[in-house]
Description:
The protein is mainly β. A hairpin with a 7-residue loop joins strand 23 and strand 24 (277-280). The protein has helices spanning 18-21, 314-321; strands at 6-8, 12-13, 34-35, 39-44, 54-59, 67-69, 73-74, 80-88, 94-102, 108-117, 122-130, 137-143, 151-160, 174-175, 180-182, 192-200, 209-214, 218-222, 227-233, 238-240, 244-245, 252-260, 264-269, 277-280, 292-294, 300-308.
Amino acid sequence: GPNDGVLIEEAHTNLLTANQSTGTDTLGNTTGFGKFSGTDISSDSSTYIQGNKSLKVSLSGATANEGVNTGSIDVAGGKTYTQSVKIKIPKGSVLTIQIVERDSADVLMGATSETITGTGDFQDVSVTRAFEATGVKQRVYIISPVAAKFDFNVDMLQLAQTPYPLSWTLGGTTQAAETFTLPGHTLNPISGTIEVEAYIEPHHKGRAWVLLDQNNKVRVIHTGDGFLQFQTNNGVDTTTTPGIPDTDLVDGFNRVTARYNEDEISIMVNGDPDTLSVEADPSLPPTNTNPLTLDNSFNGLIRELTLSNTARPDNDAVARATRPEGHGF
């Protein structure tokens, strides 16, 4: 379908315990969770996403800031952490999710919050915070910012040392880095076209990553200062297009077209000629049998990858990239 794709992610570890990460499903009790005054917590087998249970939190409505916490978790100082969770909140009710930074004496240093309004179904929410060097303990708070009586459910919690949310893995375990390789395809060293749809989210902008790579000879990359570029290398010299700025990338799937021949290399997004970035007299790659890989530094969805042995002309490249959604290139 039009929303399917291959998810390629970097390695990451869920720093929570298994029972915390599964919302009580591992042990069937509330071990690892604490509660604030006026709150009851329990293991609920009637509502869940994964496994057979989730954490049920019941607010009395007596005061603001009722809710649940994880207690202090030891982390490395000077790093950036993201807390992600799936929460089912009654429609219209409001919760605040906080990632709380504390020092070695467990003294509060600061917190970063995200507020979410319930829809009646499970929702994804995440919050990210850059810790100071002395910030070596972390807590998660899920609280009501006002006095309100309602129940909510929590499942699939994750705390990871990343500046953005990644797919859930069981607490205390590490998901290995993923790389998708296209075996048996050698790119034409003289000319070619690479077309791919990449799902761009706000966390992709303003940081460096590699989308596609063939042994550092043919690459689609994104720079830390916010440009999507196409790059070729002949083993000695590298040619790089000036690049497409982040302001030309939409939040969602972007159709990327990268072309090369003996005259020039270019990159364009979403079939828009105004985004075309070109560099002449390129250093073209030598013939090699290294496979093309989808790099895990991208941390996102990729679909509709097409490789051609000729550099498609402008009108053809535009027409293919502007087909209706779901028709691919």
